[in-house]
């Protein structure tokens, strides 16, 4: 029977160090690093247009709009 190695678990600090050097985007979930697929041209255009509209609606308010490249930590869940 083949031996299956468990997936390694990383701390948030280890993930950030690896992510800063990585050539691809990834997500950190419960100690695991999950590679993300690249977006299509259509997806990129739609996301850019939505971002532009949201940003415009928030102008002059105490809120910020960010693209999908922003790293976010959700403290209550640890994600």
Describe this structure in words.
The protein has 79 residues and is α+β, with helices and mostly antiparallel strands. The protein folds into two domains: 7-36, no CATH class; 38-67. It is 35% helix and 10% strand. The chain has a two-stranded antiparallel ribbon. Strand 1 and strand 2 (32-35) form a beta hairpin. The termini are far apart. The mean pLDDT is 86.
Outline of the structure:
This protein is α+β, with helices and mostly antiparallel strands and 79 residues long. It has two helices and two strands. A hairpin with a 2-residue loop joins strand 1 (26-29) and strand 2.
Annotation keywords:
79 residues; alpha+beta; 2 domains; 35% helix; extended
Strand count, sense and barrel status of the largest sheet are: 2 strands, antiparallel
Report how far apart the termini are.
35 Å
Give me the count of strands. 2
* Count of the separate structural domains: 2
What overall form do the CA principal axes indicate? Answer: extended
| Uncertain stretches of 5 or more adjacent residues | none
Overall average pLDDT: 86
The helix/strand series, from N terminus to C terminus, equals HEEH
From the alpha carbons, calculate the radius of gyration and give it in angstroms. Answer: 17 Å
Count every helix, treating DSSP H or I runs of 4 or more residues as helices.
Answer: 2
Spatial sequence of strands, sheet with the most strands: 1-2
Structural class: alpha+beta
Helix content: 25-40%
How large a portion of the residues is in β-strands, by DSSP E? 5-15%
